[in-house]
DNA sequence: TCGGGTACTAACCTTCTGGTAAGTATGGTT
DNA sequence: AACCATACTTACCAGAAGGTTAGTACCCGA
């Protein structure tokens, strides 16, 4: 496995939560899936400018293992796979909301730019 | 610098918030300082079983740069330095609370152990 | 038949993160 | 004189994280 699942032992809840959110694109994937409900692999790739296919799959697989993401395969040609959030994924996203607000405030304060879709 | 300050550009608020919380001990430091109000270097070291002095200082310096932590030096011998949270640090900690609750729930669900003080 | 789109997998390589162990300056204690 | 504590700093190293490039199998439209 590229990233070993840790699954504890943990110091505290934040530690446990960070364990599943850490990864360059995970919070963005969470947000995309929450926003669109259901997304195909290529849609996610296009929605996250800069992800490599390798990282996208790796993160999706880990999030599936962690019970945050549901993966639905349609046995068709060309292949079709749909990703969506599980209940845990949705609640995690909800728990991340205040952090998102804090971050948005911070961006305003320090005057950082937001990334624009290249 | 060991860990370059990123300070954007960011995709979104969560991205910006994660940028300052990412680091093996940062959320724990935040929690310790929030809990005790003010802590000396050696107190923090003892409060976070397993941190190396190098990482502790590195994280504290980054958090100071990021405006989360205040560092008060007393010019005495032996040296005395007190760390505390800034307003931003306190509000970040508050924003992390729901995530902590989610993580605690998750620990219960998956039955992971909590780390015990070795 | 060539290129494009689907969803991946594999090999390789670089960068980043964190750990270990040692050293520094100062003074107090034994 | 040796040793402890304070708060660091420095050098070196291992492993994890992430990027790049290419390849797979299948079908469709030009």
Automatic annotation (TrEMBL), chains A, B:
Signal peptide (from-to): none
Gene3D superfamilies in the cross-refs: Winged helix-like DNA-binding domain superfamily/Winged helix DNA-binding domain (1.10.10.10)
Span of domain HTH hxlR-type: 12-111
Annotated SUPFAM superfamilies: Winged helix' DNA-binding domain
Membrane-spanning residues: none
Name this protein carries in UniProt: Transcriptional regulator
Keyword Ribonucleoprotein: no
Keywords: DNA-binding, Transcription, Transcription regulation
InterPro entries membership: HTH_HxlR, WH-like_DNA-bd_sf, WH_DNA-bd_sf
